[in-house]
Structure formats: structure tokens, C-alpha cells
Amino acid sequence: MIIVKNLSFSYGKAQVLRNVSFTAERGELLAVLGPNGVGKSTLFRCILGLAKPQSGEIFLDGERVSSIRPNDLAHKLAYVPQSHAPTFNYSVFDMALMGTTAQVGGLSSPGAAQIKLVNEALERVGILALKNRGYLEISGGERQLTLIARALAQKADTLVLDEPTSNLDYGNQLKVLAQAKELANSGYTVIQSTHNPDQAALFADRVLALKGGTVRALGSSEILTDELIGELYDIDLSALKLYRR
Amino acid sequence: MKKYTLIVIILGVLVALGIVLSFALGRYPISVEALLEIVRGGGTSTQRALFFNVRLPRILLACMVGCSISAAGASYQGVFQNPMAAPDILGASSGAAAGASVAILLQFSGRGIMLTAFAASLATIALVMAVSKAARGNKLLGIILAGIMVSSLANAVTSFVKIVADPYNTLPEITFWLLGSLKKTNLSDVPLAALPMAIGLIPLLLLRWRINLLTLSDSEARTMGVNASRTRVIVIVCATLITAASVAVSGLIGWVGLVIPHLTRRLVGNNFRHLLPASMLGGALFLLLVDDISRNLLVTEIPLGILTSVVGAPFFLWLITRKREEY
Fold first, then answer.
1. ipTM (interface predicted TM)
2. Does A106 contact B213 at a Cβ distance shorter than 8 Å?
3. DSSP-assigned beta bridge partners for residue A206
């Protein structure tokens, strides 16, 4: 469970987040919704302990995130970045194996227990058949699933997914979202950012809508009215006549 | 048996065979029977002198330098997320060259030249790291740019020394040093080079799994429990130490640090857990064989730097024109 209390963050004079408070329960998929540049990534950086908020507190299962050592935090909290293209073409298996680094000592390599974990994680997200393929040779959706498997192999029970569908086609978006949802149903705490209200409506248990760095609305997907979406994205949905709800 | 284990065993056997071959080859060939005799304490005094004072140090140093330069190249490639990075990317070689040139100009002894080159190489990297620490923006880019600038400064020193050096005496010696050779090494150089190489190689071998995570973004590595900037500094310092030690004994030897890790990537993949040991063996084998060519092909020795370029450049061209594969 993650509790964020009165979180404020600014880069120099530019305030990015103002008094953000919310809770993500165990077994819940919380979608953080808002247009690009609203502060979703900054919020995630704070939660992951990568950025220091000017004020406010973040608790992970009752512990203050800022007081957990990075190696210990890795056992509790895993980050799934947007699928990327690293310089070197690691195998899918090696890429996922990197998630187990915190489980082994600083001077050793992952062993049999970690290899087993990775095989299970790849199996769970349905890409075990790709384990020997190069990470740069598979599709964007498969890469994203590899990164999710890496987070599972990390053995953390809270997952932070940063726009996991942003570079994917429709089918792959649904695959990744369904995977995130399945993980939440099985007991993981999942926080996922998205700029797409449709995705939030489809898969999220609850939605946190951000506007101008503050929480505009928080609740089940029923809060996603035309008015709210219009306000978040600065458009007039009724005038566009696109959506029939 | 896993492919990696097999490849490491094959490389190990090839290095062992290469060592025997290198003892046998030379202006005065020694037969394998005579080699066995020498190892058992026999042989003529000429053979024994040749074996222990001439060939043994060269063979050991060729293996050590090849192993170190390849390990440094592979490590730099990971740290800088750049498959084109070579051990001299930060100016370790240029610094050593400047130090050696000055030392030769000042008529230092062979040992003095070696130690000056080593010290100058480390000083160059220290300067690069200090400059990059003050640089704003992208840290990796900062280090690389600082490396280019400081290298160019060191090259200016070398060029100036060459201009003022005595053209009949000192200049040829500087030129020969810059082209790289193991000709002037002796047995007492071995432990002297082995110490810094061991100090650098052992942490690299221990940390080699974590070097993988440096090829991702720093934030990503940190969320997996790895302090990327600290690990990166340790790897750079270790890789620099072994490069400096290598360049100090052998002079400038190009290409090995780039070509060998690349070839090894094709064999065992990109995982540093396998890549680093395999690169070390491959580098040792390669430089051992190149040194054999260097002292056997012509009546006069061919500098190693010339040979590694002659072998390395076409090989690399072949590599990049093959079926496109990601690194």
C-alpha cells in the first residue's frame, strides 16, 4: 500500500506538484491520469525515491520511502519504464534477470534461484518462448512485457508503470493493460500513469486525475465524465461530437 | 554443457597452446622436446636464458596486456553505453604517450619511462574526471568531451616533444614507443605491471554483473538497487588503472580494446558476466599471436601498434559490413 500525503515538488521556481495526496491499496490498479507534462512522471520519481519532494511524505507499507535504502526499496517497489532501446542487444532473459540484482550480493551474479524466478516471471507474462531472443529484435509490446517480467523477478509487490502503453499499437496496449490488471487482481499494488482516459476507464480500479500539478479528482472510473475530461485536456468534448457515452 | 563454458574452455586451451608456440618460435627456435627439458631444469644455458629472460617476460606481458586492454575496452563500452568506446576514449593512452615522450626526452631509464607513462596516464584521467565533475548537463557526455579535450592537450605535449627531440637519437625512440612494442621488457617488469592490473581487474570481475545495469538509465538501475554513478566511477577507475599499466609497458596498441570485445559479443552475447572473462582470454590470445608475428615475420621487429591496426581495421570493416546485427 502506498500513501502519499501533501506532496509538493518543484524544479527551481517551477512548481510541478502541489499538495498531492492519495492512497493506493493492495490489489488495486490505480491509474494516474492527465495530459503530458502534468507531473505524472515527477510524481513517480518521488514515489520511487529518485526525486526528493520539497514537502510532504510518501509511505510504502507504513515505511517512509525516503528512509529506505535503495537496495531494500528494490525488494518492495519495482519500476516499469516505457519500453526503450538500450545500446546493447541483451537477450530477453538477461534483461529480465537484471531485475534480480538486489537479491544477490554486490559482488556476485544471479544464481539458480534468480534464474528460476525469471523463468516463472516470463512464463507468467506469456513470453517464455522469447527468452533467448534479443530484446532489440522483439516488438514494443513484447519489450514492455519483458520489463514487467523484470519487475516481477525483482520480487517487489508494488509496481509503478510509467506510461507502459505509449509506444504500442492497439492490440499490444490491451495486452499490456490486461497484464497490469491481472497483477493487481492477484494482489500486487499497481500504479500506472496514462494520458489516455479510455484506458483509465477500461482497466483502472480507481483513477487519480491530475491537473496543473494538483489532484483534480480521485475515485472509481465513474468520475471520468465529459466535463472532467474536457477540463483536464482543455477541450470541449460535446463540441467535438466524438464520444458517445 | 553451456555454450559459454565451452567457449571459455576453448579459448583457455588456445591460450595455452599459444604460449607453448610462442616459447618455441623465434630467431632461435626451440623444439617442444627442448622446452620440456628446460621446464624440468635442463637445456643449454643459451636456451635457458632465451626461455626465461627473453621469451617468458614477453609472453607473460603479451597475455597480461591483451587481457587488460580487452577488459578495459569491454568495461568502457558498458559504462559509456557506447559500442565504439575503446580504452583510450578518456585519454589514458594520450596521457601515457605524453609522459613517455617527456621521459625519453629527459633520457630516463626504461623503468623510468614506464613509470612516467603510468603516472601521466593516471594524471590525465584524474584531470578528465575533475573537469567532468564540474561540467553541467549530461554527465556521460561531459566525461567523454573532457576526455577528448584533455587528450588533445596531451597530444600537443607529445607533438612538441617530438619537434624538440634529437632527430637521430631521441625521436626514433619516441616514435618506436608510440607504435607499441614489448621488445624492451624484462622479467622484472612482470610483477610491476601485474600489481596494478590485478588491482583493476579483480573489482571488474567481481562487479561484472552490475556493469550490465549501467547500460540502462541511472534511474532504472537505482530502482533495481544499483547506485549507477558510484558503480560507474569504480569501473572507470579500475579500467583506467589497467589501461595505464598496459600502455606503460607496451606503448600504444590500438584496436585490441575495440575489436576483441566486439568479437566476443558475437560469441557469448552482451551479458558482462560472460563477456568480460571471455574478452580477457580472447585479448590475451590475440596479443600473444600478434606479438609472435611482430618478432618472427621480418628480421627487424614490427611494432605491435602497426600490426594490430593492420589486423584490426580490416577485421572491423568485415564486422560492420556483415549482416546487420545489433551490438
1. 0.89
2. no
3. A30
